[in-house]
Write a structure and sequence with these properties.
- With about 850 residues, the protein is an alpha/beta fold.
- It has 4 domains: about 50-280, Rossmann fold (3-Layer(aba) Sandwich); about 360-505, no CATH class; about 510-635, Immunoglobulin-like (Sandwich); about 640-845, Rossmann fold, CATH 3.40.50.
- The chain has a 7-stranded mixed beta sheet, with helices on both faces.
- Strand 6 (about 160), helix 7 (about 170-185) and strand 7 (about 210-215) form a beta-alpha-beta unit.
- Helix 4 packs antiparallel against helix 9, helix 6 (about 140-155) crosses helix 7 and helix 11 runs antiparallel to helix 12.
- The longest helix is centred in the first third of the chain and has 18 residues, at about 95-115.
- It is globular and about 95 Å long.
- InterPro entries: Class_I_gatase-like (IPR029062), GlcNAc_PI_deacetylase-related (IPR003737), LmbE-like_dom_sf (IPR024078).
Length: about 850
């Protein structure tokens, strides 16, 4: 078998000539009878809708399901952000890791409701109170360009926003998303706007743009919705083919947002959605008035129309092979029509029907989860045709990198019905890019990700460079063939979950990780940190690492010893733990250490060592990202009282690890075990973020927690949302949780009670302790409380009134109860000195006499 190497230009020509219609699938599988019948029904329509909002979970899955499943329209959701700035209810990931989770949750939602997914390059920097504030952080021109790109690429007939471009009272990102949509509606049709895009797409004018409104939006602004100015759409219909109402499907879609705790119950029966016209000609009866939503809009489609009508009439799901020729002829005809998103969607649907009529299954797999550039791996392709049709294959090619292709076989004999054929080949991996999400490959700002490749912008995920390509020949008088791309995937069998697929990851030869993310020095004593190096290659590898300051152009304050270490590994899976002693400076300082790595001691080829951070949840595909290996260093004059803390887990956060860094013994207490736990051994007990939203047992054992306070303990409750509390009586005295927050991380903090112990003991808190905070001061503040509570500090966002509910403290018996909306889970991993000092003071509150 031969190996062929192509340059980029020849590679493009090769695909143009040999893969004139190329599809990308994870595996090739037949459709179920229900899905096949639905796809044939949807082939009759050509309408399209683009829904636009700001975040994962903003989209109205009911309306998306209505358009995609009931009407059969091409329907997409453009989420301007990936939800990176939110909180995570299922694990510890925040920021970039959370963005990866929510990206995949959106894909799972669209896979359920039938839509497709787009993004802009906007970074979810956290809560914003106004669109004006949002646009000081987002690059508005870039976000607008991305929305225009999505419109030109998808070419929707109508556009729908989730939020009003004028009514406030909601997240600033929300209003900003509607304003972007309004501008993009016009700009997409203007060739003078973002002309660089016209190399890939054409200008496009949607018919009209709507706001998907409801009375809720108006009530928030003290107004009443006038149904005379809106169009009502009934979306609660039942589909006998699916055995579900479209609202039930929509609830399943919304329930994919698991990291946000948005499991939804399906509604049944009538339900109405409302659309208010924003731009375009108004119709009170039909959102698509004046839009041709069948194939007569496509010039020369008469023969295709006849064929799909014939297919709808004749298709028998129990004998799909009887319609093979009709499907193949329809496929040939649609390829002769003008190239557009409409025809491309029909081409993809017809391919899936061809696979279904043939009972075709194909997979390209590997038995290891990751590979290294330069290593070899055995790729296995399995193919079976379980129904007798004339479909056959004539070539396999394995793509082992962007410009490296290896021919597996140039001829495949006709497949025998229901007999698996397997091809295996050992190939050399030739790719230089790690499997990092593409939007994380370049430097980012607080408000924007950097993506230079125009064709990548908006895509949900990175494209795999490790793939297989092959021709399928329809084998009948149509004389038609097409190319299919299958990514090479890791396939394995889980003893509980059974057969599983995961994306094949390209990883560095050696990865590195510090066993602690943050190291805190409360005095001038040195500390040892541990760095693990791991070999990911089957081949021997050696080299040297250097420990360097992230601020290498500035004065170095923390001194590592050793600062340079040689390493050598003989095989994959070998690891080495390196102890590095770090001497801190005398005064408060923050820094971080990175790991500089070069293989074979080649100083000319130095790179930063990468960590591999795995993201593994049942509801989304296995993922990983590869940030620079880093440990944050913090020298803080920090005193503490007490030694042992009990921590009741809430949603995932970093606080327990941070407390251990300070020197506390932290015992994780399962909420269900509170009944048998001796709380008297703890100097303080903390509940994790949103613990009272997700831990049902806290309602049962709350009296025990209050008794612990009465007997002299300190109970610190981190923020919860008022929505879905397991009990309204978490406090020793009543208080109310609001949605109030301070989003300016440098907002002025006023000491309302400067003599309060929490500001003085054991650490004297000063304004300097509120410098260098990240993303926000806090969220879900208390807004009213019993007179027994004291509020020692206040802060406010520009132009707003002072908020005093970030920390409220009440004495109760011999102990103290505190509720705090300060976002410790963000501040502590960033090494914010003042956040550590203030939290220690909360923990150290003294017993009342």
């Amino acid at each position: 078998m031969s190996k062929i190497t192509f340059n980029t230009a020849f590679l493009a020509l090769f695909f143009l000539l040999n893969f004139s219609s190329v599809s990308v699938f994870a595996q090739i599988n037949p459709l179920s009878a229900t899905k096949a019948l639905q796809k044939i029904e949807h082939l009759q329509t050509t309408g399209s809708v683009l829904y636009i909002a700001a975040h994962p979970d903003d989209e109205n899955t009911r309306l998306i399901t209505h358009f995609a499943q009931e009407k059969g329209y091409r329907t997409a959701y453009l989420s301007l952000t990936r939800g990176d700035g939110g909180q995570n209810l299922i694990g510890e990931q925040v920021r970039e890791g959370l963005g990866i989770i929510r990206t995949n949750e959106l894909l799972a939602a669209r896979n359920t409701d039938g839509g497709t997914q787009f993004f802009s390059r906007a970074n979810d920097f956290g809560y914003s109170k106004t669109p004006e504030e949002t646009f000081t952080i987002w690059d508005k021109e870039q976000v607008l360009a991305d929305a225009v790109w999505a419109i030109r690429k998808f070419r929707p007939d109508i556009i729908v926003t989730r939020f009003s471009p004028t009514l406030g009272g909601t997240h600033g990102h929300h209003t900003a998303s509607a304003q972007i949509a309004m501008e993009a509606y016009d700009a997409a049709a203007d060739p003078k706007q973002f002309p660089e895009q016209l190399k890939y797409v054409k200008i496009w004018q949607a018919k009209r743009i709507f706001w998907n409104t409801s009375s809720w939006f108006f009530k928030r602004n003290g107004l009443e919705m006038s149904k005379d100015s809106t169009m009502a759409i009934e979306i609660g219909d039942y589909d006998a083919l699916l055995g579900k109402s479209y609202n039930e499907i929509a609830a399943q879609s919304r329930s994919q947002h698991k990291s946000q705790g948005f499991g939804s119950a399906g509604s049944r029966g009538e339900q109405t959605e409302y659309l208010q016209i924003l731009k375009g000609d108004l119709s009170k009866e039909n959102a698509f008035e004046g839009v041709v939503t069948d194939w007569t809009r496509i010039k020369g489609s008469e023969k295709f129309i006849t064929l799909i009508q014939k297919l709808k009439k004749e298709y028998n799901p129990s004998m799909p092979q009887n319609s093979y020729e009709t499907i193949a002829m329809a496929y040939r005809e649609v390829r002769e029509l003008e190239d557009s998103p409409i025809t491309q969607k029909a081409i993809e649907d017809l391919k899936q029907l061809l696979y279904t009529a043939s009972g075709l299954f194909i997979e390209a797999i590997i038995d290891q989860p990751n590979v290294v550039n330069g290593d070899s791996a055995i790729i296995e392709l399995n193919i079976i045709k379980r129904i007798n049709t004339p479909l056959y294959f004539n070539m396999y090619i394995i793509n082992a990198g962007k410009e490296s292709m290896q021919l597996l076989t140039d001829s495949i004999p006709p497949l025998e019905v229901n007999k698996m054929v397997t091809f295996k080949k050992k190939i050399a991996i030739q790719t230089s890019n790690y499997s990092n999400p593409y939007w994380l490959n370049e430097n980012q700002t607080t408000g924007m990700y950097s993506v230079e490749d125009q064709e990548l912008i908006g895509n949900p995920l990175s494209e795999s460079e490790l793939t297989t390509f092959f021709h399928i020949d329809l084998g009948i008088k149509t004389k038609t063939n097409f190319g299919v791309i299958l990514p090479i995937q890791h396939k394995y069998t889980d003893p509980v979950k059974g057969e599983k697929y995961a994306p094949l990851l390209v990883v560095p030869k050696v990865t590195a990780r510090f066993l602690d993310d943050v190291v805190i020095f409360a005095d001038e004593k040195s500390k040892k940190v541990k760095l693990e190096l791991l070999s990911n290659t089957d081949n021997p590898v050696s080299g040297k690492i250097n420990i360097i300051s992230e601020n290498k152009n500035k004065e170095v304050h923390f001194m590592p010893s050793p600062s340079s270490i040689d390493f050598s590994f003989s095989k994959k899976g070998e690891s080495k733990i390196i102890e590095i002693e770090i001497n801190p400076p005398k005064n408060n300082q923050n820094d971080a250490f990175l790991v500089e790595l070069n293989y074979n001691n080649n100083e000319a080829k130095t790179e930063f060592a990468k960590s591999m951070e795995k993201i593994d949840y049942d509801h989304i595909p296995y993922q990983a990202m590869f940030p620079n290996a880093k440990v944050r260093l913090m020298r803080a004059k920090l005193e503490k009282k007490g030694e042992r803390i009990g921590y009741i887990l809430g949603a995932g956060d970093y606080v327990p690890k941070a407390l251990e860094q300070i020197g506390y013994q932290v015992d994780i207490i399962e909420a269900r075990n509170l009944g048998t736990t001796d709380l008297s051994v703890y100097d303080a007990v903390l509940t994790g973020i949103r613990a009272f939203n997700i831990q049902d047992e806290l309602a049962i054992y709350l009296p025990k927690l209050h008794k612990y306070v009465e007997n002299g303990g300190n109970l610190i409750v981190q923020y919860n949302t008022a929505h879905r509390l397991v009990t309204q009586d978490m406090g020793v005295y009543p208080f109310h949780i609001s949605r109030k927050r301070v989003t300016e991380e440098n907002a002025k903090v006023t000491f309302e009670l400067p003599n309060h112990p929490v500001l003085n003991t054991p650490n004297k808190i000063t304004p300097l302790d509120f410098e260098g905070w990240t993303q926000e001061r806090g969220l879900y503040f208390a807004d009213s409380w019993d007179e027994h509570f004291e509020a020692p500090i206040s802060s406010f966002d520009t132009g707003e009134e002072s908020q005093k509910g970030s920390i409220i403290i009440a004495k109760y018996g011999k102990g103290n109860f505190a509720y705090t909306g300060i976002s410790w889970f963000r501040q502590l991993p960033e090494g914010v000195t003042g956040a550590y000092r203030l939290l220690v003071n909360l923990i150290s509150l003294e017993e009342n006499k």
